[in-house]
Specification:
about 25% strand; two-stranded antiparallel sheet; alpha/beta
Length: about 270
């Protein structure tokens, strides 16, 4: 771990590690903390990473999941929050592979907000791998809803994740999903809450991301569907791009729009 110049904004990314990530010619393919670093770096924000799980992956499938003991990565993350308090611009969570990991994430948010009450916190609810392998069981999902989502966070689910968390049908209208999830975000630090419901699943064209800010104002960001194109780790990149732009002081609508455009450009 190296110390950073406190003059710039820093993103603290707490997520899993994907060994299949490759980076070449300024663009990467893969998920996890390396994708987080790529996304934040594109917007000029430095990243420090704390790994919650080591994975073995191949051809987009997760073969093995090796969780890091939550109290171990929590201790590391708390130390970084203290060290970076003058430059920390945002906190982003990706893969949290157990109920205990989710509870530790909530504790990290509470402790970080004691030092930085207005700190943006982005949570990408990684419920399962793109290949279908589950990451978070029922107890973990319950902790996510009952604890972490009450901490004043920006939640960035895709449509299947949103439906699962909201307890609604997968085919539910995006507006209905967004309304339900935003109600579930009520709690402490309501000035920091928000929702970015990512489109792209299904056959919609154009792809629509639904954004709801802390005041409940909804907006839609859309871009054309790219048939046959895909990018492993697009969700990681999108969430970290949102976090990086929030760290730079942009509004949630601005951050989500920039994130969506950038990810779409990578897919193109």
């Amino acid at each position: 771990m190296s110390r950073l110049d406190a003059g710039g904004r820093v993103l603290l990314a707490v997520a899993g590690h994907d060994p299949s990530y490759v980076f070449a010619d300024g663009r990467g393919d893969g998920a996890g903390v390396d994708a987080d670093r790529e996304a934040a770096g594109h917007f000029g924000v430095a990243t420090l990473s704390v790994v919650t799980a080591w994975t073995e992956q191949e051809a987009g499938r997760v073969l093995e999941l090796g969780p890091v003991e939550p109290v171990v990565w929590l201790r590391e993350a708390l130390g970084l929050v203290t060290e970076l308090r003058d430059s920390l611009g945002a906190l982003k969570f990706g893969l949290l592979p157990s109920e205990r990991a989710v509870r530790c994430a909530s504790q990290l948010v509470r402790e970080a907000r004691k030092l930085l009450p207005e700190l943006p916190v982005v949570v990408d609810p990684v419920l399962g791998a793109s290949g279908g392998e589950p990451f978070l069981d029922a107890a973990g999902r319950a902790a996510l809803v009952d604890d972490l989502m009450g901490q004043g966070i920006v939640l960035t689910p895709n449509r299947p994740e949103a439906a699962q968390l909201a307890g609604l049908e997968l085919g539910s209208a995006p507006g209905e999903l967004a309304r339900r999830l935003f109600q579930m975000l009520e709690g402490r630090n309501e000035r920091q809450r928000g929702l970015v419901l990512k489109g792209g699943h299904g056959a919609e064209d154009p792809v629509r991301d639904v954004i709801v800010d802390a005041a409940g104002r909804a907006s839609v960001h859309e871009h054309p569907r790219l048939v046959g194109a895909s990018l492993h780790g697009s969700g990681c990149r999108h969430a970290s791009a949102v976090a990086a732009n929030l760290a730079l002081g942009r509004t949630l609508e601005e951050a989500a729009g920039l994130a969506g455009e950038w990810v779409a450009s990578l897919v193109r």
